Amino acid sequence: MATSTPTASPRTAPTRSDRTRQVAVTLAEIFCVIGTLVGVGVIGTRVEESSGGALAADATLIAPAGPAFSIWTPIYLGLAAYTVWQWLPDQATDRRHRAIGWLAAASMVLNALWLLVTQQGWIWVSVLVMAGLVVTLGLLVARLQANPSYGHAETVIVDGTFGLYLGWVAVAACANVTAAFVASGVDPGGLVAEVLAAAVLAVAALVAVILARRLGGRWAVAAAIVWGLGWIAVGRLTDEPRSALVAVAAIAAAAVTVAATARQRTTAA
To answer: What is the value of pTM for the model shown?
Structure first.
């Protein structure tokens, strides 16, 4: 049976709602850039030094090693590219951009808000903001799944960017919750802490499986999750607090992520 290739929506004149959405995305991107400048220490305190060091790479058993955060470079470049892309004539009235525009803007605002909240040391508020970001991106990528990409550039700029974004914050959310508990004095230490950390990583693996099943096995999402889990393993093997048990759990969770994504892709083929 022949299958049709997704195509861009026929071009029509942009409505006032379209223009409002485009402006909102642009303003959100500017706010996101400002928040990022705060988070990297250009006009504020670096994330790893904020909140009393609760979010540093050696603060908890679930914290990824420092190089893990370089994933923000392609994500932020992708968000900037998306902001420009959605202004192009063919995109202004496209059904995909109408479906995700406001969610994309919300994700950028929440991203910046998280960075600003951590500057104040409000670690539990940052958990709530992170939860909102995960939900927002989950809904966004689900809408991308419901409205298939129609070209390579669209896939890279939109699906690639928001896939990486979702996968990374899914792992970051686990680290964020763990940091909040430890910062609040909930840290049993020793083997108990290691077992609990392994349990958190099992939850991360479960989340990865759910995302693979519901979002069609997106490799961008899986790649970001595996990246985060891999650097958690590296951190526990090379930096304090050291834990072979947590490192193995992180590697196992990464393997489950790849297997679940590959199976979903095979099933959908």
So the answer is: 0.92
